[in-house]
From TrEMBL:
It comes from the Bacteria. This is Phosphomannomutase. InterPro entries: A-D-PHexomutase_a/b/a-I, A-D-PHexomutase_a/b/a-I/II/III, A-D-PHexomutase_a/b/a-II, A-D-PHexomutase_a/b/a-III, A-D-PHexomutase_C, A-D-PHexomutase_C_sf, A-D-PHexomutase_CS, Alpha-D-phosphohexomutase_SF. It holds the Pfam family PGM_PMM_IV. It comes from Asanoa ferruginea.
């Protein structure tokens, strides 16, 4: 039997077990196109989607290496079986966004759960991921599933898994799964037999809007009820599911309704007005910034499509600019600390080290974790706040133990309104922090590869030819996190480079930081020096990776 014959045999076996007529027709068309479609067929059967620490994510297409009803059925059966084997009690709560296939995947998950004898609770419609994370805790669920691909391209979808308190413990109650749960669930999925033998029950219980109302009420509790509320906000959900919930939260908190980018306000799985539905991407916030200019808004806010991230733009002397995730993270931490919120403030090893200095100066516990909110929220039972530089913020860990773009937007609005009431701005507050602690300039070197082996080569190159200096300063610390994580950290007295492969994309990433002291109160001059240094650090780091 040739390799192609074997591939065709596997595809025909898949066809016989696929429960979805549409994907069966899609795969049959690929088979009919052979041999011209051999590469496409091989890619679809290159292996099952990897069930990682956040679940599944991949392109919507037929075959095991895609998101489709067959893959979701198998994943749901494996998850439900794993929960049963560990004696987990409580319902499975299921949420979904507005992407293609999301509702069907959520409903299939519910039917698999009820078919196995477990109660299934479906959220009442397309809703933000933090609402699902909240529901896992609120409803004492055994686990939660969120069908979303977050800010991925339109052709993708995904399947995130959260654990309840029974299996997640105090730190992981309502949080995304971490090892070894991911490996165990993956093994349970692989052991699922024929999909035609998976029993399917009813849809379970479709929750009403009381759950959403409860989330909105809890979201507003992150604010000082007596704080200023005079603020004009321009907002976009980037064609995602955040608009209604954010508007309700702002109204409940006493803010004026944000001005919305009309052409991006309603959910649209095609994301027609953006090249990439991620507020970090160049151009993604152009429309909301233009709206802010037209309406005279004080700030501009964007959520990503599943509203677990929050982006912020502010006006300044040179026009509007988007704040980095590190800037927003430090601003929110500083604001909470000034309000007297005690507890642990945590971020990741690739985020700015400025947060550690705020905590040290103010006598508060600090935590640094590996990348990802699944680790941030496990920084300690005393967690008060966590953030990652990729626009994710956890401002109410007792309510949502994950990043939450709705509560983050509320807290940004409270900060901006308070500053406005005192005739100040967010830009002014950033300058005050810089004057006190110095300028912490961050940047990222991101290299996309076609061949994943190039990433291994680059990591090997920097490990075997580790530079002795950066920016003309000696490297005083080299920290290699292998075998626990493929991360290398280089430090000098005033600079840091953290190098690692991306966990979600075929990219090699280096997270860079330069610390520049402020001399004689001249913050702009310090920012200029820091910007020049971080550019030079990009060049030196690229050379250290064997990239020119």
């Amino acid at each position: 039997m040739t390799e192609l014959d074997d591939l065709v045999a596997r595809a025909r076996a898949w066809l016989a077990d696929d429960p979805d007529e549409t994907s069966r027709a899609e795969l049959a068309q690929v088979l009919d196109g052979l041999p011209g479609t051999a590469a496409d067929l091989a890619d679809r059967f290159a292996g099952p989607l990897t069930f990682g620490t956040a679940g599944l994510r991949g392109p919507l297409r037929a075959g095991p290496n895609g998101m489709n009803l067959a893959v979701v059925t198998q994943a749901a059966a494996g998850l439900v079986g794993w929960l049963a084997a560990r004696g987990a009690t409580g319902p499975l709560v299921i949420g979904y966004d507005a992407r293609h296939g999301s509702r069907a995947f959520a409903e299939r998950t519910a039917r698999v759960a009820t078919g196995a004898g477990r109660e299934a609770l479906l959220l009442p419609g397309p809703l933000p991921t933090p609402v699902l994370a909240y529901a896992v805790r609120k409803l004492s669920a055994a686990a939660g599933v969120m069908v979303t691909a977050s800010h991925n391209p339109p052709q993708d979808n995904g399947y995130k898994v959260y654990l309840g308190a029974g299996l997640g413990g105090d730190l992981g109650a309502g949080a995304q799964i971490v090892p070894p749960a991911d490996v165990e669930i993956s093994a349970a999925i692989a052991s699922v037999g024929a999909l035609t033998d998976v029993p399917l029950g009813g849809l379970g219980v479709v929750l009403d809007d009381d759950l959403v109302e409860s989330y909105v009420d809890s979201a507003t509790r992150v604010l000082d009820p007596d704080g200023p509320r005079d603020l004009a906000v321009a907002y976009t959900p980037l064609h995602g599911v955040g608009a209604k919930v954010l508007a309700a939260a702002f109204a409940r908190a006493g803010f004026a309704r944000p001005h919305e980018v009309a052409e991006q306000a309603e959910p649209d799985p095609l994301f027609p007005t953006v090249a990439f539905p991620n507020p970090e991407e160049p151009g993604a916030m152009d429309r909301v910034i233009e709206l802010a200019k037209v309406t005279g808004a004080d700030i501009a806010i964007a959520n990503d499509p599943d509203a677990d991230r929050c982006a912020v733009a502010i006006p300044g002397p040179l026009g509007w600019r988007m704040l980095s995730g590190d800037e927003v993270g430090v601003l929110l931490a500083d604001h909470l600390q000034r309000r007297g919120v005690t507890g642990r403030y945590a971020t990741t090893i690739v985020s700015s080290s400025l947060l550690s200095q705020l905590c040290a100066r103010r006598g508060l516990p600090y935590g640094a974790t590996l990348t990802g909110f699944k680790w941030i929220v496990r920084a300690g039972t005393d967690l008060a706040f966590g953030y990652e530089e990729a626009l994710g913020y956890c401002v109410a860990p007792d309510q949502v133990r994950d990043k939450d773009g709705i509560t983050a937007a509320l807290l940004v609005a409270e900060l901006a309104a308070g500053l406005k009431a005192s005739l100040s701005t967010i830009g002014d507050r950033l300058d005050e922090i810089a004057a006190e602690f110095g300028v912490y300039a961050t940047d990222q070197l991101s290299v996309r590869v076609d061949d994943l082996s190039d990433i291994d080569k680059a990591m090997t190159y920097i490990r075997t030819k580790t530079p002795g200096s950066l920016l003309d300063e000696p490297v005083i610390s080299v920290e290699d996190l292998q075998p626990d994580a493929d991360v290398l950290i280089l430090r000098t007295e005033s600079a840091r480079a953290v190098v690692r492969p991306s966990g979600t994309e075929p990219k090699l990433k280096a997270y860079l930081e330069v610390i520049e002291p402020v001399v004689d109160g001249d913050v702009p001059a310090a920012r200029e020096r820091a910007a020049a240094s971080v550019r030079a650090l990009r060049t030196e780091t690229a050379a250290s990776l064997g990239i020119w």
